[in-house]
Amino acid sequence: MARVIFITAAAAMGGFLFGYDSSVINGAVEAIRGRYDIGSAALAQVVAVALIGSAVGAATAGRLADRIGRIPVMRISAALFTVSAVGSALPFALWDLALWRVLGGVGIGMASVIGPAYIAEVAPPAYRGRLASFQQAAIVVGIAVSQLVNWGILNLAGDDQRGEIAGLEAWQWMLGVMVLPAALYGLLSFAIPESPRFLISAGRTGAAREVLAEVEGPGTDLDARVAEIERAMRREHTSTFRDLLGGRFGLLPVVWIGVGLSVFQQLVGINVAFYYSSTLWQSVGVDPSSSFFYSFTTSIVNIAGTVVAMVFVDRIGRKPLALVGSVGMAASLGLVAWAFSARTGSGDDVVLPDAEGTVALVAAHSFVLFFALSWGVVVWVLLGEMFPNRIRAAALGVAASAQWLANWAITASFPSLSDWNLSATYVVYTVFAALSVPFLLKWVPETKGKRLEDMG
After folding, report:
1. Which pTM does this prediction carry?
2. Over the chain, what HEC string results?
3. What is the pLDDT of residues 418-450, one digit of tens each?
4. Domains of the chain
């Protein structure tokens, strides 16, 4: 079992990089604005452009992995992360910083697909559920570590995001440190075996038997396991977009439900907390060091909420957990919107009264907690379970694409919206959180305790 846990943890390093790269830009936003003297719209594109690369990486990773193997795709992802980290730390101008962000985004997209797929194919059936949770856990840990590293670098630079450390500005170090986990991910890929499923598809049955013996133990009937995998692969239908067509609005109703889940998960504004939280707190008068610390504490709350979801998602069901999260998110976001409405002043003289500041801080953390213990995990569980077998792969692709697009829309719009009216921006997020309640009640099915074969 120790060997299996090591293999799973090594593969989940892609999830760690996913979380780290997604969140590390949070510490550099204001420094990039000052370094290149750009407005909110241009700044938003630099932050959000990585999501375009993520969509490309996610769309190509599966087919590439089927052609060359899971492990080579992990190494490509690690290489892209490494190149992106070096380039982002040493940009010549704003345009090439954006280019390095896109490359890192491609790595994010690949890691988001290949990690869960590899773990599912290597993990022994009896432990697959628990081992699959390593990926989500690695993502939230990556987010937390990136915020802790950013806070530490800021302190070394005298609380100045553009303060120099060994000839580079603090924000450059923040982006460049990702070289370390990226290199570790690449090295670990040489210490874990190829997926037995890929090996069988490539005609390398002997190698597949060796891997199965390694991960499933000496008592395993290897001939039976190889035959089982071969039968499953012969039965599989490669779904296409055409299989999703039907119903009154173009797509099958269950596909629209999947798209709705993906979109609502992003439209509540969760990634504002991970991409812009330092900027957000500074915009209401919090000093840089404290704003970075609050970003770190938010990520710790995110980890705690994710653990809660992993414990209860199979006990109380998907819909009840999501409903609790929706109500909690709506209440928390409403309090944040109310608190930010008390903001006065402009520029560096912005002030938030003590009472409203405390409410904003507590409510922002509770929002992340309610998201993490519900929609952050439940949506991925539902998307993996609710689609019929014959359309699952294609439907997941459409839902994931909708999620990346919604993520991009929120990420690209927040700086301009917050310049216009920060409180009203949070009112918009509150409305989406509230609308998710009737959406869940009316359309989303409960999948707890149902076999995948029973989904119709």
Report:
1. 0.81
2. CHHHHHHHHHHHHHHHHHHHHHHHHHHCHHHHHHHHCCCHHHHHHHHHHHHHHHHHHHHHHHHHHHHHCHHHHHHHHHHHHHHHHHHHHCCCCHHHHHHHHHHHHHHHHHHHHHHHHHHHHHCCHHHHHHHHHHHHHHHHHHHHHHHHHHHHHHHHCCCCCCCEECCEEHHHHHHHCCHHHHHHHHHHCCCCCCCHHHHHHCCCHHHHHHHHHHHHCCCCCHHHHHHHHHHHHHHCCCCCHHHHECCCCCECHHHHHHHHHHHHHHHCCHHHHHHCHHHHHHHCCCCHHHHHHHHHHHHHHHHHHHHHHHHHCCCCCHHHHHHHHHHHHHHHHHHHHHHHCCCECCHHHCECCHHHHHHHHHHHHHHHHHHHCCHHHHHHHHHHHCCCHHHHHHHHHHHHHHHHHHHHHHHHHHHHHHHHHHHHHHHHHHHHHHHHHHHHHHHCCCCCCCCHHHCC
3. 888 999 999 999 999 999 999 999 999 887 766
4. 1-192 (1.20.1250.20), 240-456 (1.20.1250.20)
